[in-house]
């Protein structure tokens, strides 16, 4: 309890300093911006490691260089003479001393602003792990939670000619975060996607969502426009290549239109995209969208009315050189390698990857499973944790709604089937459906390892069931997988969302030698044999995982803080034996 005694000094005595910054959470602020003009604030920022959160405690951002008597005050910071760091990046790979750092780093940058006729200005932070407290020109603008979704801060009323932004970023793993403090991947820290300025008119298009109307025989399109700054008016939608020009009546800040059209359908072999323009008063938004339908019918997944088997692979968002701040070139390489492996599908585990992934997948023709990190043992009975998870889901769906490649929203991974978890995750699944009835919902679940069957109460609330199983690796008795297949009657499509085994790249031995490529190959061969005789409800596979990735839990001599279940080495230079087994199996499915 903080008592304000006569000698009380807020900067050193106020233990409850964090609460004030949690009173204004930045949530659900996504602006549809794929093709909008944005000015970069990325590049060299000043930074300091702030292990004790002195910036927030002593309010460095107010820049009080004098005391109450107007005398110079010996500040403990000097923003513009601090060391510099690259934004976007993960700090772990920028400085040796930051390699394993978890805590707060304070970033700051000054920038000039001149008005170009716009009425409103926003700053977009593409992603920042995990808690980001935002200050602009000494004003507290709010706090964002969640390490992998974008947030937009309106700075219209605080901008001057010369400006300073201060971001206090804390990546400490916490029990009540999403994900919690225990995961199977490395906890990178930092502002790991771009920071940009957007100039907008007084009334602008906050969100624009467009898709084929489900079950309309691919002949109707629905578009929704959400306006910020006006309640009524008329928006105009143009898809010139389809000869579409239609008005959208805006009432209460929102307008919906459904119109006839017969677009060439987007699919993995023909990823057709259409240029779209939406105009509302002084705002013009461009988009580039593919039209396709994804649905389930009994045990099958249908893409544009045709049954499809998802030939997938899981991937984290990581590269050896850039960590979580993966580049566009690295994404394109991953998709090219996945296509080489005869994949038509990728599971972007276990958190929202950069929006560039879905934008590139739209162009290259890869179907995507996107996921929020409700991973393992979340604090399911903690309301602020639910609001954090739901906000990450809202921000992900708002961000990627127009991406044809995204077919599945996953609400989590490998959670125990408790009552609290069922409420928490079924609500997330319902929220996803309510926001987007054009896609499938899923979650990666665990089989009941007493009854050897798919028996997870969450399955009722998702369209497609993901099953993670490691028969042949964590569970040596491989015959149990066939028991699971035989004992289960899911009545909906099932994707084996994880299976695999570890292999140290180039380590050879017998099929029984742990951590050899030969053992990994043997597990994959047994899995593939099971799939060849698998149940009719098996509609897809995404082996764990594309390439080895950093993981603090993995200390074995053949792991050295890497999870070695990759089919490729961490830098993707070496393809393990199992890669070729999957490639060959998928090739055999291509014709089907
Ligand atoms: C789990 C989990 C992964 C993890 C993998 C493993 O299924 O979903 O995140 O890396 O197993 O144990 O390697």
How is this structure best summarized?
The protein is an alpha+beta fold. It has 10 helices and 32 strands.
What do you see in this structure?
The chain has 592 residues and is of the alpha+beta class. The chain contains ten helices and 32 strands. It has an eight-stranded parallel beta barrel. The chain has a six-stranded antiparallel β-sheet with strand order 3-2-4-10-7-8, with no helix packed on it. Strands 1-12-5-9 form a four-stranded antiparallel β-sheet, with no helix packed on it. The protein is globular and about 80 Å long. It starts with 9 loop residues before the first helix and ends with a helix. The structure holds alpha-D-glucopyranuronic acid.
